[in-house]
Amino acid sequence: MTQRRVALRAPDKLVFLLSLVPYLIEQQVVTVAEAAAHFGSTDEQIRDAVRLIAMSGLPGDTGTYQSNDLFDIDWDAFEEHDEIVIVHHVAIDEAPRLAAREAAALIAGLQYLAALPENADSSALASLTAKLRAGASATPSGLAIAEPAADASLTSIREAITSGRQLEFDYLNARGEGGRRRTDPIRMLSQDADWYLQAYCHTREDVRNFRVDRMSELVVLDVPVADHGDLDVPETLFQGSSSDLDVVVDVAAEALPLLADYLADSSTQEVDGRLRVTLRLAHVHGLKRLVAGLPGLVTVVAPADARQVVAEWASAGLQGYDEASVR
After folding, report:
1. SS3 at position 298
2. 77 contacts: CB under 8 Å, gap ≥ 6
3. What range does the domain containing 124 cover?
């Protein structure tokens, strides 16, 4: 089959060449036909571009082109086997590269994402991880990513959601109160590192959010979920209610966006270099987790029982360190 050659305009040719060079370097060895199929061009356009690349480069300090200032290809492979192999390239190595620690941090994040059930056997994540390793300025440090305790429950939850079946489980709320719940799963949401199941709870007869790491003994029932089309399902994870507790805190300005979901209103007052705001929480025990996530950035001002709960929790944590040092 004869390929139809379409002439490229100068701007299009430049974009084509700028895309072709990194593609050839990444592929290392590629045939003319494979490159043509990748870019939707003809074999002859690829050959012309390769010949042009071989005459391109970056002049040295003298302003003239020396042998090492030009791209070079394996001409034998190109002319005899129609294969493109760039054996010397210039300027590309001067692009910014990630430091080993930066690459290691990004790879750790990709490893965490790859461990999630929906990303199992993801070729895109594996390819990106390999590129980060190859593109770092030095070999990235190996990091072990602990599997979150909630991951074992995510598969069952997703199975219930996709199959439209009820989900039953034991649930321990933030107050330490436990009980068996039967739910109609609606969807999953995440807040930082925590996963939540949004579901219609048959026990409470209303929509509730369940933190996945507080769920246990999950069972997907052979009972279809009911039609809850008439329910007002909130778009956000946390919703206020008349029983919520207002807590006044002083927070560092840079940390305020992290508390956006908990702000009772938009009013702020500067006090001793910090912003005094009011948070709205479901209960005082949730404040402990919030303060732990922003160490040194949040100070509880009022009410007194909220200050006491946080102080007792912090003291218990310090006592645990003291006991460990004695052993």
Report:
1. strand
2. 29, 83, 84, 85
3. 96-147
